[in-house]
Predict the 3D structure of the following.
Amino acid sequence: METVNPSLVPQRKLNNGMIIPGIGMGTFGNDRFTSEEVADAVYGAIRAGYRLFDGAAAYGNEKAIGEVYARAFADGIVQRQDLTIMTKVWNDMHGKGDVLVACAQSLRDLQLDYVDIYMVHWPFPNYHAPGAHLTGRNPDAVPFTVEEYMTVWRQMERLVDLGLVRAIGMSNMTITKLEQVLPLCRIKPAVLEVEINPTFQQPKLFEYCKAHDILPIAYSPMGSPCRPERDTEEGDVVTFEMPELVEIAKAHHCHPATICVKWAVQRGHVPIPFSIYENEYVGNLKCTTEDFLTEEEMEILRKADKNARLIKGKVFLWEDAKDWRDIWDGEDAWNVL
Ligand SMILES: NC(=O)c1ccc[n+]([C@@H]2O[C@H](COP(=O)([O-])OP(=O)(O)OC[C@H]3O[C@@H](n4cnc5c(N)ncnc54)[C@H](OP(=O)(O)O)[C@@H]3O)[C@@H](O)[C@H]2O)c1
């Protein structure tokens, strides 16, 4: 297997002083792959030189992934402190006392003493079963409220106090929501995990994060070509087919996926591409260490933003919501510079 020296991979500093890799691997694959297939890829990725992994209780594969972490430590490939392991509390564990239980369950499944970065997966308690299809709205679904969110965040802060997590983060937030909760946080989020790819660059949110010293983690950095059907709509932009991306990929003799990764890392957000295929995940890591994009290419890609959200979150809609844009506070209409 081709390997990449982790010390050559760009690093990022969090607002609590932690240093983390500038690229990681995603692990949401259970709509298409078994937990074991995803876990095997995690093991391969550790061997290849990945040191950052994104997970979630909701992905349903933490037990299988925990086994490969334990194996990687036992095999002496890495030590625990070499890895940055991220996971998230799911929407059905937002109640008082729930977050500690959820974190304990993830620690148990992952066979760890602590998680490096623990995130709130979505900013409301709207639950859907794994692999759910879109059949009407859940009558129990509710919109975001500051009170509900801060109930969760206070528990997240206590996890830091207890030493069970090194840093805490948010996911799927908007500027509108951050404006309401950031002033109330005793411990500010170190990261914000949101969709960012060349077709949906979220420049305002990106700048907002920079100004507040929050590191953006980019989910679906390739434009999630294999995302669940519930998140597709007719007319969705196909990231890999963007002419600007295709053109730059040709010039670098690589797949457009490689350009998505290079663009992300050079812009300064942390992509967490998913793939179980060795050639893809090794390539995604290796490309961050060589053959960089020029300033001109970065500018072409910046201008190519289509402001087209792919992961819409429709499955979380509450009854009174107009459409999925309500989940994002209508910001897609103005999240451009
Ligand atoms: N916080 C959240 O709410 C949230 C939401 C969504 C995702 N995430 C996280 O973000 C991670 C990544 O997002 P994602 O899985 O939606 O989408 P993604 O990483 O944008 O796309 C993954 C797909 O891209 C293709 N790909 C990857 N590397 C490639 C390469 N080098 N060449 C060609 N194709 C390549 C693969 O297709 P093939 O399999 O066909 O090769 C793979 O299935 C997830 O695994 C998860 O950890 C978080």
